[in-house]
Amino acid sequence: MRRTTTVLALVATTALTLSACGRADETGGGAATTGAAVESGKADGTITVWAMGAEGEKLPDLAKDFEAANPGAKVNVTAIPWDAAHDKFTTAITANSTPDVAMVGTTWMGEFAGLDALDPLPSNIDTAGFFPGAQKTTEVNGTSYGIPWYVETRLLYYRTDLAKKAGYDSAPTDWQGLHDMAKAMQTKAGAKWGIGLQAGGTGSWQTIMPFAWGEGAELTKDDQYSFDSPQMLDAVKYYQSFFTDGIANKSAPAQPTTEPDFASGKVPMFISGPWMMSAVEKVGGKGFKNKYSVAKIPAGSAGSSSFVGGSDFVVFKNSKQRDTAWKFVQFLADPKTQVKWYGMSTDLPSVQSAWDDPSLAGDDKLKVFGEQLTTAKAPPSYPTWEQVVANFDTEMEKVTKTGADPQKALETVQQQAQSIGTGQ
């Protein structure tokens, strides 16, 4: 589950000319505010940048382009391990020693904005060209505090060769179709498990929520969490059915499908992000890329949706180089920069126009990720989200592994969420 679940433990028309989409449905709204406009002209001065994981290691090379275009500017990048990042940020915020600019996990935005650590997006930076769901990850109470840097979403991976044995020439487009196809993968194509789904545990909400969103579920209502809606119940019952019907492995670990499982046909379907393409092709060997495909999450009554993850880029309030910091953020959101960064990292662009580049537009599987991103959604940006959703994961494990009643499980989640509150 790569970057986004690690954070839990995870396309524009012109360079950062993207319209801030309000987030009243998921954050409780509030009047949107913007920061002071960024001055025109070249950037100058030195800025410090923190970035995590492989991105932090590769970003200095990309930053050289910014320095070349702004000879008076210097970008000092510090790479931080993901598992140490959250504590490092909170310690720096407390000590008033934050960097000028930073890559921030999408689920941390509400917390850091709640600590009054982030600078609101400048008024002359428009946000209309980002994928809507990605843009919403930057918004807290209707105010944007950064830009979505790169994005990811989840699709259905399936073995096309085994699907044909099961009697299917294409992927299912609705819930019943997915259930039937997964069963047929067992009975007709010889798979041990029809589909690999996470049986609860940390991050399982990221697989369950797309089905809830597909039914039209909202995770908040009247500035409070809302987990006990009829739409959420329908989604959880459906998800549970794969385990009670013996189609998915209720004893599966946190990563229910490994690359060898998929390559061998033991588990011929699973839901995951774009990073799994290279992973399964490496294990599957020569020609394996022609034995599988990807498809949008099968639709519920409200359509097809998925989880949008990735990372945002922010400027901290105490930056003494605010203009240069925001100009660097603008540089990261330029479509040409995003295409170059994709080539360096395989991180998918958050700017929609970047997807017109042949390096992305020419890949049929990547195109499906781009299509799913147009309807993908983000969780609420409440500061307590991670605490609340940990309880959700725990209750879902009872639902999948022991057959616990979905309604009672959601009632428990709702009671816990109300007790914890939104943290606003």
Give a description of the structure.
The structure is a single chain. With 424 residues, the protein is of the alpha+beta class. It folds into two domains: 2-153 and 308-373, 3-Layer(aba) Sandwich (D-Maltodextrin-Binding Protein, domain 2); 155-295, Periplasmic binding protein-like II (D-Maltodextrin-Binding Protein, domain 2), CATH 3.40.190.10. The chain is 43% helix and 14% strand. The protein is built from 18 helices and 13 strands. It has helices spanning 2-8, 24-27, 53-69, 82-94, 109-114, 132-136, 160-165, 175-187, 205-214, 230-244, 259-264, 275-284, 322-332, 335-345, 358-361, 364-373, 385-402, 406-420, and strands at residues 44-52, 72-80, 101-105, 139-140, 143-144, 147-153, 155-159, 220-221, 224-225, 269-272, 292-295, 308-315, 348-349. It has a six-stranded mixed sheet with strand order 2-1-3-12-6-13. A three-stranded antiparallel sheet has the order 10-7-11. A hairpin with a 2-residue loop joins strand 4 and strand 5. The chain is globular and about 65 Å long.
